[in-house]
Write a structure and sequence with these properties.
The protein has a single domain (30-421), classed as Pectate Lyase C-like, CATH 2.160.20. 4% of the residues lie in helices and 35% in strands. It has helices spanning 32-38, 113-116, 345-348; strands at residues 22-25, 44-47, 50-52, 56-58, 64-67, 73-76, 83-87, 92-100, 105-110, 136-147, 152-157, 159-165, 168-170, 175-182, 187-190, 193-194, 199-206, 210-213, 216-218, 222-227, 240-243, 246-248, 265-270, 276-278, 281-283, 288-293, 300-301, 304-306, 309-311, 317-319, 327-328, 331-333, 340-341. It has a 20-stranded parallel β-sheet that branches. The chain has an eleven-stranded parallel β-sheet with strand order 4-7-9-11-14-17-20-23-26-30-33. It is globular, with a radius of gyration of 21 Å. 57% of the residues are buried. Residues 1-8 have low confidence and may be disordered.
């Protein structure tokens, strides 16, 4: 069934039980929010090309919101609203559109009522105080361009069982793609481009069945971080798989300044534990390819760094613990690398490593981070790949639990991974 058109949109009163319809914007409803309000579970909201000045909140389960053209369907916040799209119901898919110019997030997927209402916490992130942890269960963000947003481009917070894929994030004043406060996450972040952000991808307190695979994290200030933070619940962060990513040239000046001053680092592990970094290509990061450190009270424990290729970094791997909190049981095996701090880590900290064994630490001269630019001035993205058959395919069923990748089958990426759709190149 399809929308019948006209001012009233599809005739909901006469719809057979279980029937699914396509609600078209602006044919059936003049705004995206109006179309979403008409939708029932299983419906598709299909948006015609145009610039839409609204914040869209989806509170109905299993609705698909899809643009007819990824580059020409634009939700533009004009810096007057916190979020472009808020997903607050399970089983929702957001596909094939651009979200830009929001003071906080391009797309926010969350089970937190406070976060959904746009209540920021300390340092611009979300501190939900005494609010109990409530997970939104099952989501999909696919073929979305999120650019020039004041906090995160695509943000899954207190959400489980989801996929962020085939998307592009730039101009995130904090991170392009962020997953926070989930355990077990059962979240897959795959085949995305994050560039020209303060941080390409960040996972904070994102633990267990958390997969970041096959992404291009190039030309940010910091490529990827996985960390523990008291600002969110479910400490500590542990049990993520970071595999098959290209993480390179993360010292781009024309980016928003990172809140903690990070610069020139490919991968940062700050108080994260039991993570597996395997077959990533980490290249040309002027400070370091991979850094392990600890928060003031959260040690970095049991991280495995295996079969990665490091080239052209200031140092390839560096472990540093400037406070009394240290690391334990971190190890390396089978990596192509040249320089470590302390020296000879590949020998002295080879895998497997006893869990209680203290991790050695050292220091190195880190480059000074230069000033950045406002997120509103980050270079606009080029055209991005379209969702296949966007206008002829029905609503997208979102599985209750996504299929999780098998780490053994994830290859080392080429140095040109997803380069055709990126502005920043690795050389």
């Amino acid at each position: 069934m399809v929308g019948c058109g006209g001012e009233g949109g599809p005739d909901r009163g006469r719809r057979p039980a279980g029937a699914q319809v396509t609600i078209r914007v602006p044919a059936d409803a003049p705004t995206i929010s109006g179309a979403v309000a008409l939708a029932r579970p299983g419906d598709l909201v299909l948006v015609a090309p145009g610039v839409y000045h609204e914040s869209v909140r989806i509170d109905t389960a299993r609705v698909t919101l899809r643009g007819a053209s990824r580059d020409r369907v634009v939700i533009d916040g004009r810096l007057r609203q916190p979020n472009g799209v808020v997903v607050a119901a399970p089983g929702v898919a957001v596909e094939n559109l651009t979200v830009r110019n929001n003071t906080q997030n391009g797309v926010l997927v969350t089970g937190s009522a406070k976060a959904a209402d746009g209540q920021p916490g300390r340092s611009g992130g979300y501190d939900t105080g005494d609010e109990p942890v409530t997970f939104l269960k099952s989501f999909l963000v696919s073929y979305v361009t999120a650019t020039r947003n004041g906090l995160y481009g695509i943000y899954a917070f207190s959400a489980q069982n989801g996929v962020i894929e085939h998307s592009y994030a730039s101009g995130g004043a904090d991170s392009g793609i962020y997953v926070g406060q989930c355990k077990p996450c059962r979240v897959v972040v795959r085949d995305n481009i994050a560039e020209l952000n303060a941080v390409g991808y960040e996972g904070t307190n994102a633990s267990e069945d958390m997969y970041v695979v096959g992404n291009r994290l190039v030309g940010n200030r910091v490529g990827l971080t996985t960390d523990s933070d008291h600002q969110e619940k479910l400490l500590p962060q542990q049990g993520a798989v970071i595999a098959g990513n290209l993480i390179a040239a993360n010292q781009q000046r024309a980016t928003p300044v990172q809140a903690d001053g990070g610069w020139g680092t490919g991968i940062g592990i700050d108080g994260g534990s039991d993570n597996h970094f395997v077959r990533n290509r980490v290249a040309g990061n002027s400070n370091a390819g991979l850094v392990i450190t600890a928060t003031a009270d959260m040690p970095a424990v049991g991280n495995r760094i295996e079969d990665n290729t490091f080239t052209g970094n200031g140092i390839d791997v560096g472990w540093t613990f400037p406070t009394a909190t240290r690391g334990r049981g971190n190890c390396l095996r089978g990596n192509d690398l040249r320089t470590t701090v302390p020296g000879r880590l590949a020998t002295t900290a080879s895998c497997p490593r006893p869990g209680k064994s203290p991790s050695p630490a050292g220091r190195w001269a880190m480059p000074t981070a230069p000033g950045g630019i406002p997120f509103t001035e980050v270079a606009a993205p080029g055209p991005q790949p379209q969702f296949p058959r966007a206008t002829t395919t029905g609503a997208t069923p979102v599985p209750a639990v996504p299929v999780l990748p098998k780490t053994a089958g994830i290859p080392l990426p080429s140095a040109s991974l997803l380069a055709a759709n990126a502005r920043v190149q690795t050389s």
